[in-house]
Amino acid sequence: DTSLAEINSFSPSVPISPLSMINQYKFEDGPELRDLFITVDDPESHITAIETFITYRVVTKTTRGEFDSSEYEVRRRYQDFLWLKSKLEEAHPTLIIPPLPEKFIMKGMVERFSDEFIETRRKALHKFLNRIADHPTLTFNEDFKIFLTAQAWELSSHKKQGPGLLSRMGQTVRAVASSVRGAVKNRPEMFTEMNNYMETFSQKINLLDKIAHRIYKEERDYCTELKEFGPIHTLWSASEEAIADSLKGIAGCIERCCKATEQRMAGLSQHLLPVLHEYVLYTEILMGVLKRRDQIQGELDSKVDALANKKTEKDLFSEEIGKLEDKVERANNALKADWDRWKQNMQWDMRSSFTNVAENNLRYYEECLATWESFLASQSVDLHVEEDSEDRP
């Protein structure tokens, strides 16, 4: 990892803040290499006799030759995003598919279908699609292309062409049968280390997520008290003529500090809480990917054991083992590359989020300090004026 000191050495003559340093470091590679741009916006509510749901506009702009047009605009509902995620997992079982926001938000946080809930989900869906677009393999998935380009009726027709019930049941049975075989005997050490890393990471990121939500709640309670505290001084000034100006000044300071607190809360809700929660969801995805890799490894191990115990049909078993060895190798290589990419993205996201929070805190305390220092300076001037007037004959 490049340290902040190393980044600062790139341009020592320019005043640098931590966030601007990271932004410079992140975008030096040049975003012009991208050829697929996706925007999720314009949420729209739909009310029918059966259900109420939200659709989002998905706008795609691209220069890729496999697309028939350079720009597409479609509307998608949450269930369509779920379908895309399941198709990606089915086609790429050992790649790390980005998480989707949960179907229902946690009780007590945000009311379903409120403006805040819809906007939070819109941002998460926007990030989901752009994570896929930036992925070197997922971005060329055919179902992803159909999701971006097909009209609603075309997408609905394509969905019906998926695997039938018996096929899905067969996949489920194989997965369960593989999972109950016990620990994988020949798992490479690298994947054991990945599993241990994810167990530790899961504990830490869940703890950070809980602490961040607790801090946000405390900030919200504090802001509520400030909103009640300021007007009290204004009312008080009406009955204390001698100190009325000072009391009004205190009320003004509290009001400005309250607005600064609201801005700090907005920074937490926009830049820290979503990132932490996204990686809480990522832990479940990563553990699932590792299990699917182990299932492929377990299938190979069982065939090798069967070959050792059987004297007949060796040629048939040898052919199956060869195919499974290739499958395991492809799965291992795919996961290794995706793992390194995921860790780099995670480290960048965490560094950026916490640096952003630190800068917001600095601005907050500087603003509050300047507010109260200005007020105290004005009171000091008034006090000197009164003392001079009393000294005169």
From TrEMBL:
Swiss-Prot/TrEMBL GO biological process terms: autophagy of mitochondrion; endocytic recycling; piecemeal microautophagy of the nucleus; protein transport; reticulophagy
PX domain residues: 34-155
Organism of origin: Daphoenositta chrysoptera (varied sittella)
Coiled coil region boundaries: 307-334
Name of the featured protein: SNX7 protein
UniProt cross-references to Pfam families, sorted A to Z: PX
The keyword Amino-acid biosynthesis is annotated on this UniProt entry: no
Gene3D superfamilies documented for this protein: Arfaptin homology (AH) domain/BAR domain, Phox-like domain
Any GO CC annotation of this UniProt entry: early endosome
Keyword Protein transport recorded: yes
Family label: Belongs to the sorting nexin family.
Keywords of this entry: Coiled coil, Protein transport, Transport
